[in-house]
Amino acid sequence: MNKWDRLEQELQARKAHNLHRTLRVIDSAQSRWVRHGGRRMLMLASNAYLDLCSDARVLERAAQALRTHGMGSGGSRLTTGTTDLHTGLEHALARFKGREAAMVFNTGFAANYGVIAALCGEGDVILSDALNHASIIDGCRQSKARVVVYAHNDMADLERKAAEHRGARGLIVSDGVFSMDGDIVNLPELVRIADTYGFWSMIDDAHATGVLGPTGRGTEEHWGMQGAVDICMGTLSKALGAEGGWIAGPAVLVDYLQNTARSYVFSTSLSPAVMAAAHAALDILAAEPERVARLQENIRWFCACLQAQGLRIASQTAIVPIPVGDEKRAADAAEQLMREGYFINAIRWPTVKKGAAILRAALMSSHTREELEGAARAIARAVSGAGG
Ligand SMILES: *Cc1c(COP(=O)(O)O)cnc(C)c1O
Fold first, then answer.
1. What distance in angstroms lies between residue 24's CA and the mean position of ligand 1's atoms?
2. Residue 387 pLDDT > 70, yes or no?
């Protein structure tokens, strides 16, 4: 028996069920057009919704920071890894969310994982949406709190479960925009329930920052409820085109997490250049809200194009899921689109349920109407042709 047989067998099983995944290499900057396999392709899969990964101003600020501050930070935030560029970005994030304070983690994953495990422990209760991101799920597990999963965005189910745990300490946590379905949390109800039953509310705005609300401030702004959420989480890695995750809230929360969140305390901080890039992107978002408007217009247009092709699809966010179901059909449809020059991914288990595979289209503010119309036609052909 070879030591690696066990892994080989597991991989074979995944291949047999069309669940095996491999890497696709991109030979260019992340933008609405990329180079892959020696050709130019229209990017329909990126979370870089505002097309800022290669914006000249972002690159210049990062390059300048590299010259003044160098590459690595030499240690964790509590030792050598806090520069004026880290704290400058954190002040800007606090202002962006209208909060007393903010803190940056190395990734969005590290933020959710570290924060939830730091805030909740044995004897506490965490109410978590069934479709929350993996980093929330893992943070819940790591916390040792009692985790109660409620039906996806089902506020009656949430309230029933919150009432069952009335008097307990803990947290209600949800994605603001759900990362695969692209739908939006029912924030007014979630906040009311959290306040009624005495739980903290925590919203993950990874896919809402730069996307929702007239100025891209996220889920609260979408609902006209600025300041309503106890713990705001977001990333620098999606619409803002850089890397990192962040938390914004009262100063006492940030002070506490700086001392207790293990993914923050025990990890070398991000490069100052990444902080400079993210700060530049945040400045561009504030100065050019028309980027958000263009993205929102693209979302409406793309959904209308898909509907004109007979697909019953609606989304209010940059994530437009096209349901396929069968894993092989979804993989074949994605392959066909890749051959036609559209970079798009089939999303399969474990990211979505088995038998519920989708094509996940993600839009950018820079896509043109013509590009999106062509993409909608190609998607309709690929989905209908994929053995359906
Ligand atoms: C991507 C994502 C994260 C993780 O953020 P990274 O910066 O990629 O680590 C967390 N939550 C949600 C909902 C996400 O989609």
1. 20
2. no
pLDDT tens, residue by residue, 36-65: 999 999 999 999 999 999 999 999 999 999
Q: What is the 3-state secondary structure (H, E, C) of the chain?
A: CCCCHHHHHHHHHHHHCCCCCCCCCCCCCCCCEEEECCEEEEECCCCCCCCCCCCHHHHHHHHHHHHHHCCCCCCECCCCCCCHHHHHHHHHHHHHHCCCEEEEECCHHHHHHHHHHHHCCCCCEEEEECCCCHHHHHHHHHHCCEEEEECCCCHHHHHHHHHHCCCCCEEEEEECECCCCCCECCHHHHHHHHHHHCCEEEEECCCCCCCCCCCCCCHHHHHCCCCCCCEEEEECCCCCCCCCEEEEECHHHHHHHHHHCHHHHCCECCCHHHHHHHHHHHHHHHHCCHHHHHHHHHHHHHHHHHHHCCCCCCCCCCEEEEEEECHHHHHHHHHHHHHCCEECEEECCCCCCCCCEEEEEECCCCCCHHHHHHHHHHHHHHHHHCCC
Averaged over 224-247, what is the pLDDT? 98
| Rounded percentage of the chain residues whose pLDDT exceeds 70 | 99
Q: How confident is the model at residue 18 (pLDDT cuts 50, 70, 90)?
A: confident
Atom of ligand 1 nearest to the CA of 243: 7
Say how many Å lie between the CA of residue 351 and the centre of ligand 1.
13
Is 179 among the catalytic positions?
Answer: yes
pTM of the model: 0.97
Q: Is the CB of 179 under 6 A from ligand 1?
A: yes
Give 177 Cα–ligand 1 centroid separation in angstroms.
Answer: 11
Which atom of ligand 1 is the closest one to the Cα of 132? 13
Catalytic residue among 97, 161, 222, 238: 238
